[in-house]
Design brief:
Number of helices: 2
Order of helices and strands: HEEEEEEEEHEEEEEEEEEEEEEEEEEEEE
Strand order of the largest sheet: 14-15-16-17-18-19
Keywords: Signal
Radius of gyration: 45 Å
Number of strands: 28
Strand content: 35-45%
Oligomer: single chain
Shape: rod-shaped
Number of domains: 6
């Protein structure tokens, strides 16, 4: 009889609730379609709550439109789908995690806590933000504040569709971000740096760097631009090009003192300060132009007047002329590579000749200059051995 009474009472309660379209469990005044109260709000039981259907894997056959919004609890992580609540999103035909649809919490191999993009990870590419604010694309353990890492195309493109073009801006300041001030004397403003692996370590081997050229003061912020590369047999960068605040440009000169300042040459091959490549002269000469056609060097000091710069050769030799009789002369030959018949030449002894002797020189064969010394005084004169300088121009 009691069973019948309880059943009838429950039936009446549920019927009344359905008629009201509200169900209260643990309370007699439901405030929603389903209102469940804890056994004790201040001190709840460990069984106060709702158990959503628990599954170890998603169904092999997707639910349909009738199940759109159906809720389950995944008890076993599957791929990037961690343990947690999921609902069926029928329009997109996929299970969606509640509270972490795209970004989830995780930890990388070095123990840094982070959040990661689940769909990117499914395709094999990490996209993470660590708890200390580092962002990684293609890596879960970024070294720098922003890091792009991958085996293939890692280009970065900045696109603009209006008259204001894209800009890559480096801003560095002394003091702090909240209270900026001028940088230290010659402080580095920013840089584009390249790195590679030398077989042992990752090394920094070049870059484009911007510095203060002195110190900034109100209304004055002088700067300089430097390009560095690393020479063969070294991992230490060297400054190759420097553009100072006054416009002076130095090639391997850190402190250019002219509009164009080129390093000094050395005896080593390929180290000349300046070298022209043979080319074709301008059809119409241009004032200020210097040209080289492989045979002659030209300079145009004013419009339409191209001049050939003298091409010369020099040689120094020690000559010991024999005894020279009255009104007689003696010839000795000096080898001057590059000398040709018809070229002009000049020569002079170091320290002068004995009184009564005069000299001249001429080219009588390719690469040969003859020096002739004549006795115009009378009597024999025996010149001392001395050095002679020979110059040839064409």
């Amino acid at each position: 009889m009691k069973i019948i009474t309880y059943t009838l009472t429950l039936f009446l309660v549920l019927t009344a609730s359905f008629l009201q379209a509200q169900v209260g469990i643990g309370n007699s005044s439901p405030e929603s379609t389903l209102d469940i109260s804890a056994s004790n709000a201040s001190s709840p039981s460990n069984k106060d709550g709702i158990l959503i259907p628990r599954i170890n894997a998603f169904p092999t056959t997707n639910p349909g439109s009738e199940q759109n919004g159906m809720l389950v609890f995944l008890t076993t992580a599957i791929g990037t789908d961690d343990v947690g609540f999921y609902y069926w999103d029928n329009p997109n035909t996929r299970w969606v995690g509640i509270g972490a649809e795209e970004w989830k919490f995780g930890t990388n191999a070095t123990g840094d806590k982070l959040i990661y993009a689940t769909r990117a990870k499914l395709t094999g590419t990490d996209m993470v933000i660590t708890d200390d604010g580092r962002i990684g694309f293609g890596t879960s353990d970024p070294i720098e504040r922003f890091e792009f890492k991958g085996p293939g195309d890692n280009d970065i493109q900045i696109t603009s569709a209006n008259p204001n073009p894209p800009n890559l801006i480096f801003y560095n300041t002394g003091g702090s971000l909240a209270a900026p001030t001028n940088l230290a004397n010659n402080g580095e403003i920013g840089a584009l740096i390249v790195k590679t692996h030398d077989g042992n370590n990752i090394v920094e081997n070049g870059g484009f760097r911007f510095y203060m050229d002195g110190i900034a003061t109100p209304g004055s912020s002088p700067s300089k631009f430097v390009i560095t590369t690393t020479p063969q047999g070294s991992n230490t960068q060297q400054q190759r090009i420097s553009v100072r605040s006054n416009g002076n440009v130095g090639f391997s000169e850190q402190n250019p003192t002219a509009t164009l300042h080129v390093r000094a040459g050395t005896a080593s091959a390929n180290s000349a300060p300046l070298k022209f490549t043979s080319g074709t002269k301008l059809a119409t000469p241009e004032a200020g132009a210097m040209e080289y056609d492989g045979n002659r060097l030209y300079f145009t000091p004013e419009s339409n007047i191209r001049q050939v710069l003298l091409k010369g050769y020099e040689q120094t030799a020690t000559l010991n002329f024999p005894n020279i009789g009255n009104k007689d002369s003696e010839d000795l030959t000096v080898s001057v590579p590059g000398a040709s018949m018809g070229d002009n030449c000049s020569c002079s002894p170091y320290g002068g000749l004995e009184v009564g002797l005069v000299w001249n020189c001429f080219i009588n064969a390719s690469n040969k200059v003859t020096i002739r010394v004549t006795n115009i005084k009378g009597g024999n004169i025996n010149p001392s051995s001395r050095n002679w300088k020979v110059s040839v121009y064409n």
